[in-house]
Amino acid sequence: MTAGALAARGFDLARLGFAFRTALACCLALVIAWAMGLEHPQWAGMSVWAAAQPTRGLLLEKSFFRFAGTVSGTIIGVLLVLGMQVHPAILVTGLALWVGTCTWIGNLQRGLVAYGTVLAGYSASMVALLDTAHPDQVLHLGADRLATVLTGVVVATLAGWAFAPRTDAAELRGRVRALLADLLRHIAGPGAAEGGERALLSRLAAVDDALDPQAAGSLRSRSQVRTTRAVLLAAVPLLLWRVGEGGATRPARAVLLSRAADALERGDMDEAALLMETPEDGDAESRLPENLRRLAGALRDWDRGNAPTLRELVRRTSRPAVLHRDPIGAGHAGLRAGGLMLLFGVLWLVTGWEAWPFALLGLSVMISVFSTFENPAHTMRHIFAGQVLGVIGALVCWSLLWPFAQSGLQQILLTFPFILLGPLLVSHRATVIAAMDYNLILLLMLQPGFPLTGELADMAAKGLAVLFGPLAAWAGYRLIFPIDLQRRQAHLLAMMLRDLTDIARSPRALDHRRVWQARLYHRALRLVRSSDRLARAEDRALTASLAFLTLGRAVMRCHELLQSPGLSPSARRAARLTLERLARIQINPPRAASALSRLALRLPAEDARLMRQAAEQVSTVTS
């Protein structure tokens, strides 16, 4: 079949090539682990699938976090099995606490750091649950687990390194420069097209979403991503100034902005920054130049970030980033994971069903890894389908092919056709989500051992136990702190509202202005980005973002006014009352809006316009 015919039937040829190379590396890892005499060589193949990545930076970083997470999880798993010899409840309770804690922390983290944390949780399950009948051999099992994972990681890294390209930082920088040039021209244009702000804000959110994978693999990459994100966050208020305040750019400033856009497209960021900072008569009355100066400064840092010193790299990457986190969702995820593990662990102790450990193992993976997904309940449907295929493949291989094997090596070789089926599933658009679980469950159930022992009924029971994991996780995601994209957006909006009330309440708000603004701007980008995946949600996301940012500027301006010595006593009282009402905006929104309107009557035109606009937005953020 030709490449064109495959593509016409829904296969992604680039993904097919990547998956086929990964499957070959999986087969190689199986043989190497078996030749080393490891008891569970199939874990090496599973590690290859889990560690494989399309670029070198991602490959190195995921391999590192996979091994680091496995080490920490294995240590906890060994300790839990030792505690089981005192009382089985120690294993069940300890595992529930560990998986729940790792899931909670992982949901507060980003990127592959979160992956390593979550993996530490279910790695303990793989050690503690797979050989509960022989607790005296737990140290051997833990060492075997570490050795097989290291084997798989090394094979995946070496095999992937030969084919994986480097991360294309130049392409991303080009996207950012083009986006900023379009933004400047949009601000400069006397009659920007309606909806242009919406498209630009969506592009800003999409670029921000692409930054985390670019950071993988080196301190230099992390530094570049940090400075790139600073540029994006500096651009947000420029775009929202145009929309939220209805300002019109004066002709002289428009010419400077157009020239700056041309300089950006040429890659001359120093000239672009200089043009943005060029003064113009009457600029003191406008808020636009202040935002331009911030963007110009971020551009210069971004340009200098191409060749930082080692000390500068360490300083930048060790400095905590002010980004959106979801503590509400993370707490729910931790409680959900720990609660389900405890519930079904108790059922295992009560019933004594021999297949329960496999069910708990599958559950620990499903309820932790996928808790970071936007709609995990929906994803569970695809995962269940993949696991069904994996169980069927394992049963067919075990019952129809393995009886003909004359050695452990022949068992492994007879597994290869089923492993090489995986790339077809990975590369087809209809099965891509389910494919990974087919690959992993197939290997999980097929532990080579000659001579072949056991009964088909036992294998089938093990398969049913494995399939219990996604079903129980699906029920958990639907019934226990239900989570989907709409609820994640609701959490995000709740955090933005809490930020607003906290900054209104804080007497030191101006000291933390940059931190608060960076977090709010990033949450606005996350809100817009998530709305791209929901029908009819873009307008609501843009409206909510504008409302929060307008109110945020009003709150900050109130704090500035209170520190202004020339403010009249009546205006000072009104500003103080406005902050008090905004701190309780959730309790009584109309009073907050009324306070903003009354304050506007006591202020000059520019500040009065901001307060009136903020009053109009109160209902938007509280509805």
Task: Outline the structure in words.
The protein has 623 residues and is an all-alpha fold. The protein folds into 3 domains: 3-166 and 325-479, no CATH class; 169-215 and 218-318, no CATH class; 485-622, no CATH class. The protein contains 28 helices and no strands. Mean pLDDT is 84; it is low at 242-248, 282-287 and 313-320.
Question: Topology, pairings included?
Answer:
Blueprint: H1 3-8, H2 13-35, H3 42-51, H4 56-84, H5 88-108, H6 111-129, H7 138-163, H8 169-188, H9 196-209, H10 211-214, H11 219-245, H12 251-266, H13 269-277, H14 288-304, H15 310-318, H16 327-351, H17 356-369, H18 376-401, H19 408-419, H20 422-427, H21 432-445, H22 456-479, H23 485-505, H24 513-531, H25 538-562, H26 569-583, H27 589-600, H28 605-622
